[in-house]
Design brief:
This protein is an alpha/beta fold and 312 residues long. 39% of the residues lie in helices and 23% in strands. It contains eleven helices and 14 strands. Strands 1, 4, 5, 6, 9, 10, 11, 12, 13 and 14 form a ten-stranded mixed β-sheet that branches. The chain has a four-stranded mixed β-sheet with strand order 3-2-7-8. It is globular.
Length: 312
């Protein structure tokens, strides 16, 4: 049985490679979907992980089932259907960063409902993890996430939530209302600073931490990209510096942070220790192309931690 259960929308990824000398454009096929990325990151750090979603009875769906089998992610709670397709997205790169183009309307994951939930698996987990995307893909998926959080809370399962706001899915006002309601039932809040600026109008990191602590989470980790992370509990705050690497592709870095952080929490780390570990894992992920392939394993992260500080 999984200690960490993640829920959301996996999507087959096509990531733009550098232009060839003749100017032609090529894409690297891979796997994406924020909570699936986080699940794999957690599994590579040694956590027992499972995944909740629906996939089409199609090639991308088969590809994900094979991926999770390779990565040791329990997919016994994944539904397969021939009524809907698995989502697909493209990643392009330019001087301002990476950009996403999603094809997800009426995906199998978006058609997921509360009636589909594996309640016994959720009740038997130690941590349940979702994101704003998990709720933004459809109204039925949104309700299913709320129902899953309720099952988790009633059974003493900790809840973790990443905002991961996507404006093409829903307007800021609705996203804020839904996410803030979910955060009120969350133990570990993992918002991104750009998301928070849009969802709350706040601009100062300390004000952002205050906001989420008031909602209810006992641990808030504000992911700030190049500025590292900022961790808060009701009685302590600490800045987590970024780990310097040569960035090739930042796709999925935040997901790697979340999955690695939760894996270390489940392993017994204190939040600050877990966040420092996750910061290095997220940086190492950025040294290769794609959301999944460059996610580091625990040995890689521990080696980088030793190199950065001389000790673990």
């Amino acid at each position: 049985m999984a200690d960490l259960l993640c829920m959301g929308e996996p999507m087959l990824e096509f990531n733009q490679l550098p232009l060839r000398p003749d100017g032609t454009r090529h894409y690297l096929e891979g796997h994406g979907g924020d909570t699936s990325n986080a699940a794999i990151a957690a599994a590579r750090q040694g956590a027992r992980v499972g995944y909740i979603t629906a996939l089409g009875d199609d090639m991308p769906g088969d590809s994900f089932m094979a991926l999770w089998a390779r990565e040791g992610v329990d997919a016994s709670t994944v539904i397969r259907t021939d009524r809907w397709l698995t989502g697909v997205y493209f990643v392009t790169h330019d001087e301002s960063g990476h950009h996403f183009l999603h094809y997800r309307a009426n995906s199998a994951a978006a058609m997921y409902t509360a009636a589909d939930l594996p309640e016994a698996a959720i009740a038997g987990a130690r941590m349940f993890y979702v994101s704003g995307i998990s709720q933004g893909i459809s109204s039925t998926a949104c309700d299913a996430v709320f129902a899953a959080i309720d099952v988790a809370r009633r059974n003493g399962v900790k809840v973790a939530y990443d905002t991961n706001y996507r404006p093409r899915l829903w307007p800021p006002a609705r996203a804020a209302a839904v996410m803030h309601a979910a955060m009120a039932a969350t133990d570990y809040a993992l918002p991104g600073i750009e998301d928070v600026q849009i969802l709350t109008g706040l601009t100062k990191p300390d004000s952002m931490l205050d906001f989420y602590l008031r909602l209810g989470p006992k641990v808030v980790v504000l992911k700030m990209g190049e500025s590292g992370a900022y961790l808060a509990t009701p009685d302590r705050r600490v800045r987590i510096p970024k780990h310097d690497v040569r960035v090739v592709d930042a796709t999925g870095a935040g997901d790697t942070f979340c999955g690695s952080f939760l894996a270390r929490i489940l392993a017994g780390d204190e939040p600050e220790q877990a966040a420092r570990y996750a910061s290095i894992a997220a940086a190492l992920k950025c040294t290769g192309y794609g959301a999944v392939a460059p996610i580091p394993y625990a040995a890689d992260v521990l080696a980088a931690m030793q190199g950065a500080s001389g000790h673990v």
